[in-house]
Amino acid sequence: MKITQIPFKKTGFFPTIMLDYLEQKETIQPFYNNFPNIAGFHNQIAAKQKSYRLQTRLVLVDALKKQFANFDISKKTTENINLLKLQNTFTITTGHQLNLFTGPLYFLYKIISTINLCEELSAKFPKQNFVPIYWMATEDHDFEEINYFNFEGKKVIWNREDGGAVGRFSTESLQSVFDVFKTQLGTSKNAEELKEIFKHGYLKHHNLAEATRYIANELFKAHGLVILDGDDKSLKELFTPFVKDELENEISFKEVTKTITKLKENYKIQVSPREINLFYLGDNFRERIIFEDGVYKVNNTQISFSKAEILKEAQENPLAFSPNVIMRPLYQEVILPNLCYIGGGGEIAYWMQLKNYFRKVKVTFPILLLRNSVQVISKKQQIKLDKLDISLEELFLKQHQLLSKKVVENSDIQIDFDKKIAYLQAQFEDLKKIAKKTDITFTGAVKAQEVKQIKGLKNLEKRLLKAEKRRQKDLVDRITFLQNELLPNQSLEERQRNFSEYYLEYGVSFLEALKEGLKPLELQFTVLEL
């Protein structure tokens, strides 16, 4: 195994807001709290320890024990749950949807980043304990985002009727999905292990939340991963004061809107708040709560409440109130002794819209850390890259840029069109000086001729390049095939492939290689040669 780190910006796949954050530019500093480095964690520990109550710890531990009651968990996971009772114990958290069979590869990268950061912080802060948390997005209701995964270029899809929080979905209809998937895996030892994980996860647990907990636990229990389901009555009771405040005062809308006004001066806005950022959750639906004409209404239903009635409902039936993308981060930080949230670029970008909202409701805002991203390259693929003289950084160029660069480098005809254009521009500068001494119409003619001739040179360059690509067809085809293989659909493979493809080839050693290779605080893109 070989590990290479390259800057995120060299890949071309990360938004400006994240690149500016990693470089700590002044334009982004007002929108985050402590930066993800050792000094930042030192400050964060002090702030969270001061604000997080012992009673909340006890409720959290009791809820986790109940959630794990019917699962075979490791000694380390059990220890981590019990450690949460102690006031010197903190969490590092990542969250993810309940994608079928974990969905895209970056599910693994999120969790391993979280586990590895806990281990690194334990070495740096020996007087504190650090527990990795995977927050399951059990209350999401967008089933089309999670009902499939890609395996060897084909979609494995779970077809069923949509409706309500996905964590509550019955897994009964997944037998047919398993029957299709297992035929694609073959009969190797690794294939049989994958079949067992899928079968035990989905066919022996009655809902999607329990199935996902089983799979994540099987993959990561040796590292003490604690898996949390926020769709929990006792945990939501801790959040009830914030729910009531939202219903009465629309705090999140007001504060996040103020932040967006400033943030959008330099960056793209990820999510926009609603007046009330809560859903009402029933057995088969999750619908927005809307305040109209003095009445609280549940969108697309006949359910409505007066102010007194909905506040009473929030108190007596906390499970019915589900935070949306704006309020879910607050819910997480209220119930966990959390120091840091690890997420993808889009996630971290929308968290940056929330800092002032957290300050307003007096909840400690966490450190934000961009998760590790990984490109896996086999030894055979690396040999091909070497033969084609393609560096790791060049691999991430747009395909037309990569092809043009390599075709030019490999050509016997070396014409520097940039130099010729610069020479031409210099000649026209002399003509412009002469033109200024004559007639204004002559000046215009000189400028027009300059534009025409430069355009002509650029067209010649394009025609020459096109001709060279035809002449070097074999090279073009080899580069195109290899880049498409590594970057399916011209995007990072971590967003396309499922872990099962690599597990089928490498087995558990694939997870071990990731565990060894991911360094969350280095803030670099990881290339892993296996």
List the helices and strands and how they pair.
Layout: E1 2-6, H1 16-22, H2 38-51, H3 54-67, H4 75-83, E2 89-96, H5 106-124, E3 129-136, E4 148-151, E5 154-157, H6 175-185, H7 189-203, H8 208-220, E6 226-229, H9 233-249, H10 251-263, E7 278-281, E8 286-292, E9 295-298, E10 304-305, H11 307-316, E11 321-323, H12 328-335, E12 338-343, H13 345-351, H14 355-360, E13 367-370, E14 374-377, H15 379-387, H16 392-395, H17 399-409, H18 417-436, H19 440-471, H20 473-486, H21 499-506, H22 508-517, E15 525-529
Parallel strand pairs: 2-3, 2-12, 3-6, 12-13, 14-15
Antiparallel strand pairs: 1-15, 4-5, 7-8, 7-11, 8-9, 9-10
Helix pairs in contact: 6-7, 7-8, 7-21, 9-11, 17-20, 18-19, 19-20
Percent of residues in helices comes to 40-55%
Intertermini distance: 5 Å
Structural class: alpha/beta
What is the overall silhouette? globular
The proportion of residues in beta strands is 5-15%
Please give the largest β-sheet. 5 strands, parallel
* DSSP strand tally: 15
The helix count comes to: 22
Q: Trace the largest sheet across and list its strands.
A: 6-3-2-12-13
Unreliable stretches covering 5 or more consecutive residues = none
**What number is the mean pLDDT?**
94
| Gyration radius over CA | 28 Å
